[in-house]
From TrEMBL:
<dbReference type="Pfam" id="PF26054">
    <property type="entry name" value="PHD_G2E3"/>
</dbReference>
<keyword id="KW-0862">Zinc</keyword>
<protein>
    <submittedName>
        <fullName>PHF7 protein</fullName>
    </submittedName>
</protein>
<dbReference type="InterPro" id="IPR011011">
    <property type="entry name" value="Znf_FYVE_PHD"/>
</dbReference>
<dbReference type="InterPro" id="IPR059102">
    <property type="entry name" value="PHD_PHF7/G2E3-like"/>
</dbReference>
<dbReference type="GO" id="GO:0008270">
    <property type="term" value="F:zinc ion binding"/>
</dbReference>
<dbReference type="InterPro" id="IPR013083">
    <property type="entry name" value="Znf_RING/FYVE/PHD"/>
</dbReference>
<dbReference type="InterPro" id="IPR019786">
    <property type="entry name" value="Zinc_finger_PHD-type_CS"/>
</dbReference>
<dbReference type="InterPro" id="IPR051188">
    <property type="entry name" value="PHD-type_Zinc_Finger"/>
</dbReference>
<dbReference type="GO" id="GO:0005634">
    <property type="term" value="C:nucleus"/>
</dbReference>
<feature type="domain" description="PHF7/G2E3-like PHD zinc finger">
    <location>
        <begin position="48"/>
        <end position="106"/>
    </location>
</feature>
<keyword id="KW-0479">Metal-binding</keyword>
<feature type="region of interest" description="Disordered">
    <location>
        <begin position="109"/>
        <end position="130"/>
    </location>
</feature>
<keyword id="KW-0863">Zinc-finger</keyword>
Length: 130
């Protein structure tokens, strides 16, 4: 009764239409409404955009919550997860930088990323550093 018709499905095959029709013929009535847990607004935050600077030191005069549409205090969200944000000056990003990736997605930047190339026989390829 709490799940409503939008979440009512066969527990084995996840079919909705045939299962709903079969349950109806058996006399089981399911209300035509969304799940009751969606009525109390418990999931509203999932639709909101992240709105604060998560840099270790926020330099914005208006604080972490300030975000302009353009300019240096525009809030850039992580291009991979969109769960973290930063102002351009807070992460030393130039004015032309269109995207940014948080450390959680990109990994900590401890220096220039190097790759080692190994051949099938396990010997380093020419020009590769070991």
């Amino acid at each position: 009764m709490r799940a409503g018709s939008s979440s009512f499905q066969c527990p084995l095959c996840r079919d909705r239409d045939a299962f709903f029709l079969e349950m109806f013929f058996m006399g089981i009535r399911i209300p035509l409404r969304p799940p009751s847990w969606e009525n109390n607004g418990a999931f509203e935050a999932l639709g909101e955009r992240h709105g604060r600077c998560d840099a270790s030191e926020c330099l914005c005069p208006g604080g972490r919550e300030q975000a302009e549409g353009e300019g240096p205090w525009q809030l850039l969200l992580c291009c991979s997860c969109a769960a973290e944000g930063t102002h351009r000056p807070c992460s030393s990003l130039g004015p032309r930088r269109a995207s940014w990736e948080c450390d959680g997605c990109a990994g900590p930047r401890t220096g220039k990323r190097q790759s080692t190339q190994v051949t099938l026989d396990g010997v380093l390829a020419p020009g590769a550093q070991g």
